[in-house]
Amino acid sequence: MRKSDDFSEWYNEVVEQNELTDKRYPIKGMNVWPYYGWKTWLLIGSIVRREFDLRGHQEVYFPLLIPEDQFQKEKEHIKGFDAQVFWVTRAGDNELDIPLLLRPTSETAMYPIFSVWIRSHADLPLRIYQIVNTFRYETKQTRAFIRVREIQFIEGHTCHASYEEAESQIREDLEIMKNIAEELCLPYKVIRRTEWDKFPGALYTYGVDTMLPDGRALQIASIHQYRTNFSIPYNIYFEEEDGSRKPVHQTTYGMSERMLGAVVAIHGDDTGLIIPPSVSPVQVLVVPVPVKGEAERITGEARKIYDAVSSLGFRTRFDDRDIRPGNKYYYWERRGVPLRLEIGKREIDEGFVTAVRRDSRAKIRIDITDLQKGIGDILHDIASSLLRRAEESASRMEFDADRPEGIREGYNRMSWCGREECGKNIEERSGGSLLGTPVGESGKKGKCVICGEETDGIAIVARTM
Amino acid sequence: MRKSDDFSEWYNEVVEQNELTDKRYPIKGMNVWPYYGWKTWLLIGSIVRREFDLRGHQEVYFPLLIPEDQFQKEKEHIKGFDAQVFWVTRAGDNELDIPLLLRPTSETAMYPIFSVWIRSHADLPLRIYQIVNTFRYETKQTRAFIRVREIQFIEGHTCHASYEEAESQIREDLEIMKNIAEELCLPYKVIRRTEWDKFPGALYTYGVDTMLPDGRALQIASIHQYRTNFSIPYNIYFEEEDGSRKPVHQTTYGMSERMLGAVVAIHGDDTGLIIPPSVSPVQVLVVPVPVKGEAERITGEARKIYDAVSSLGFRTRFDDRDIRPGNKYYYWERRGVPLRLEIGKREIDEGFVTAVRRDSRAKIRIDITDLQKGIGDILHDIASSLLRRAEESASRMEFDADRPEGIREGYNRMSWCGREECGKNIEERSGGSLLGTPVGESGKKGKCVICGEETDGIAIVARTM
């Protein structure tokens, strides 16, 4: 299946055939993570962990199950999630007095506890995160990593003494996003969601969107300013230095396995996956290329090179299966391993390795005495190229539009006065979603494509996954 | 609360007051893991991961929810777990056609998939593990880490071509157990469970028990030989080289957050926790001890030492809070940090640090030029001492008994013919549990304490947590 012929089919094939996911589990939208996929997700998780940890956010774990009465304290929130919740109603032979829900997100699990953790200004800021399974009863069509019912989720929650401090946290979140996206070689846009599309209970929501090859936008992360919308109903107050009692200001930051979905969708090609070096379970593949009569010597020397590359700290795999080298190349190319080292007679005799890049197929000679720098540089260059290529293709999918009809595949930028009525009208007439207004882009003056009013407001409209 | 006065109360206090757990979550047996506790558990998990990974076991993730019909294929298994299962019966506004249960363990989630993964002998052995949340509706009194309803669990599952290969896997599991227990400084006994106490569906079960200070045994891990008891009902067959079709032989290996409970219970003292260096979130604490007029210089120099120790790869914390050094010492002693470095005027002027061990309180002078080896050696010695101390106290709780009545606090070893009738009689008359027969100990001839028959069978009897 060629990616350009049918992206959707290509995606489904490439994730299933290369051990990223197994969809044969008998519950719709709940898939098995085989080793290769799970390892990739763990590596993505460890990048997020590193970014949070070095800024002093602390990893915690809150229970999966949330009592119904605790869930219902913030009215907008419950309205937003009610239809999507899985309910535990029975345990052993007992009907439960209070049904328990599987977390779709953990605000309502955490906030009653925050209200006992936080007493005074000295307890602030509180900055925690967790990496957990969450659950949403999706009724739309499911798709591996992109729309599932058990979601691998990373959620950051913070509490601050003031709105300004919460805003500064959101700026830090954007910096974290920048670093993570760079490691995943993903371009993205930060878009302030419309009022009718923000997170249930939030003051405002920043969606982090990336553009898929079929011209649909995919939200890979979101950042929310709650102000005191949760802290008041959940009674999270702190005592100021002057003795006054105030509700904390809160933010959250959510990221999910969709980041892996985006990596697959954006970098892959007709051959299969291309996984960025930072999160590839195998960064370097070593393949011996034996010739008659010297098979043993060559395999032995190749194994020494494998050992050397491993011990330099690269995630390395040695493929000595009894099949032809060409089959090995193809097998690992499909799996997206960024760099392959071929080691044959000439390489051994002359003291070099032939490195083959997954992205460009370019062959590069690396001297055996230069493995660390040689491999490191190429992996680094592969990452840069993946990002550049992805950015170029995203930028080819950005358009200015002067009316909502006939939007193109990609981001469609149009003038919008900001009123809900006009916004809904844009969605209706375009058939796309109004993602919101881009953050950090200054709008040029124009006329709202619906009402014609002069405005510097901008709407980004796209079809979504 | 002194540990020796009331172990049970001491345990509850020490886990709650030192940020290992927070029991204020409103569901019984489902506790919050604050940062310090969660980090300790993550470190235990990373030791297990290392042991599995280096032997080629692959980490995966299977869905949490299991359809009722899939769960019920192995009759003994369902009987064993039925009363302990949480059921999801509703999603959004819909009653589910087939109720879904929260995994109490993942045999029934995994095995239908194994039956499609495994086709031929070339797919064997299959060796995977996962680190996940599991759920059991405990009706007994709950206790942090030891008896909870949401359990952090590590489960290894293997499939083999023959019974002998499965047996050899179990020997490898015991080797893994040895390495993990050594890192946690925990003595343990491997005990083959009785027929009526083995894992539901297993051919046999090895329990891995450790002895708590109050004389009760705690199972911290278990290893199961399933033979073909699951592979036949779940249709996990493989084709042999000769073309014949055979059911695979299976084993599992389970470990849980009880390992953390044992660490707390066994190593702690009247002051608080003592966490073994390998899993302590903070291995080395650095405290400046300022004197008047030189506070700034001393704190600055201490911070340099903190930086140096950190960069050597030790998990290090610098405590520069504006409270007296003595309060810091006490705070971190209670939290179980194995080693503290005190840095005052004399230390800086003479170029050394004063290291204070948490376990023995011994003070050791380490030259500033010798930090790596100096600290490394002490941490190593702390681990050895913790293990030795724990072994000594466990061995003081082993007794030979010639009748079931009046068993003592600890392991009570008695002759047993092996018959269920006599075994149940032992439990009734002793008031303890018959843990089973010790693995790898050769019994000496004796007479069954119930029926008087000559036997070299041994029963270990103890009260359990």
Structural notes for this entry:
By secondary structure, chain A is α+β, with helices and mostly antiparallel strands. Chain A has three domains: 261 residues, 2-Layer Sandwich (BirA Bifunctional Protein, domain 2), CATH 3.30.930; 100 residues, Anticodon-binding domain (Rossmann fold), CATH 3.40.50.800; 65 residues, 2-Layer Sandwich (Translation Initiation Factor IF3), CATH 3.30.110. In chain A, the strands form six sheets. The first copy, chain A, has a five-stranded mixed beta barrel. In chain A, strands 16-15-17-18-19 form a five-stranded mixed β-sheet, sandwiched between helices. Strand 5 of chain A pairs antiparallel with strand 5 of chain B. Chains A, B: This is Proline--tRNA ligase. Chains A, B: Its EC number is 6.1.1.15. Chains A, B: Catalyzes the attachment of proline to tRNA(Pro) in a two-step reaction: proline is first activated by ATP to form Pro-AMP and then transferred to the acceptor end of tRNA(Pro). Chains A, B: It is an enzyme of class 6 (ligase).
Quaternary assembly: homodimer
Shape of chain A: globular
> How is the CATH topology of the largest domain in chain A named?
BirA Bifunctional Protein, domain 2
At CATH's second level, what is the architecture of the largest domain in chain A?
Answer: 2-Layer Sandwich
Question: What percentage of amino acids of chain A are in beta strands?
Answer: 25-35%
Distinct helical segment count of chain A? 12
Subcellular location (chains A, B): Cytoplasm
Domain Aminoacyl-transfer RNA synthetases class-II family profile (chains A, B): 44-276
Keywords (chains A, B): Aminoacyl-tRNA synthetase, ATP-binding, Cytoplasm, Ligase, Nucleotide-binding, Protein biosynthesis
Subunit structure (chains A, B): Homodimer.
